[in-house]
Each structure stands twice: as C-alpha cells, then as structure tokens.
Design goal:
Blueprint: H1 2-12, E1 15-16, H2 17-28, H3 36-48, E2 52-57, E3 65-70, H4 72-83, H5 87-91, H6 93-102, H7 109-124, E4 131-132, E5 135-136, H8 145-175
Length: 176
C-alpha cells in the first residue's frame, strides 16, 4: 500500500520526502500513520528498483532538498500494479481506497473497468464478520447490538459502494 501511494503521488508530480509523507498521511494516516522510519526505506527500495530518481535542489532557507520523481520504469510499474492488483488490494478496504485514489492513472476505460468489476464481484459475494458454522450471519439474526451495528454499517457502506461501482462502470463502458 505504501509503495503504491508513493508511486501514485509521484506519478502526479515530483515531490520532496516531507511533502510526499504529508500526502500519504492525508490519504491513509487515520488508518495507518506513515512514519519516517517506514517511508524512507520504502523510497530507497523503489530507487534501487529504478522506479524513482532523486534530484538535489537548493533549499529555500536551509539545507538542500531531495526531490523525488518517477522514472519511466516507475510509471510502468505503477500502471502494472493498478492493472493487476493483488486480491488483498481488492478485498481490504484501506488498501482498496489507496488503489482507487490512483486508478485514474491506469490508461484505458477497459483496464479501469476490469479492476472495478473485481471489486464489485467481491462485494456481491455473501459474507459476514460473524458465522454460524459456514453460514454468514445477517444483522437481523444477532442479539448483540454492537455486532448488529457492525453488520448494519458494513451493509450500508457496501450498498453505497456497489451503487457507485455500477454507475461508474456504466459511464466507463459508455466512454470506452
């Protein structure tokens, strides 16, 4: 998720590390805060892979700043990750939102639609957080008001997302 966010934000514009961290934190910080001890090793891995380039620029007031930018290979890698997301990036809501934040960078309505269809198929599978044997339990079957609340909120969120997905797929398919 972190590498995808780094590649996605740098696809949009070159950034120095501090600004990149602020943007990633704004996207994912309430769920997974980004520490410098996590961000900078990820940046180094992406640089070592040839997906990022670092340029030193004079600082406005203090020390020189290191500005990061995506290489052509980094653009290709971002597009590959967007086109072929792992199952966890489709099923985990936080990872999905990170993917969704950059899906517009995937060229072609058909490729974008393919990713959205995978999410839609996942959301349409019968599921629950709670089971009786192998059978998923519905909110109405639970006596516990807190567990019932989890399922009620999840159902409403899923319905809203399914509505959005279907509408967006229709629009993409009309354009494509």
């Amino acid at each position: 998720m972190l590498e995808l966010a780094i590649l996605g934000f740098l696809y949009e514009a070159p950034l120095h590390g501090y600004e990149l961290r602020k943007r990633i934190t704004a996207l994912t910080g309430h769920v997974r805060p980004v520490a410098e001890s996590t961000l900078y090793p990820a940046i180094k891995r992406l640089e070592k892979s040839g997906w990022l380039a670092r340029e030193t620029q004079p600082g406005a007031v203090a020390a020189p700043r290191h500005v990061l930018q995506l290489t052509p290979e980094g653009r290709d890698e971002l597009e590959r990750r967007l086109a072929e997301p792992a199952r966890g990036e489709i099923t985990d809501e936080n990872r999905w939102f990170t993917l969704l934040a950059f899906l517009r960078h995937l060229p072609g309505a058909e490729a974008q639609s393919n990713v959205l269809r995978r999410r839609l198929a996942f959301l349409e599978e019968p599921a629950s957080f709670f089971y009786e044997g192998d059978r998923p339990l519905r909110a109405e079957e639970l006596d516990d008001p807190f567990r019932r609340g989890i399922l009620t909120i999840a159902r409403a969120t899923s319905r809203a997302e399914i509505t959005w997905l279907r509408s967006t797929l229709r629009a993409l398919e009309a354009d494509g």
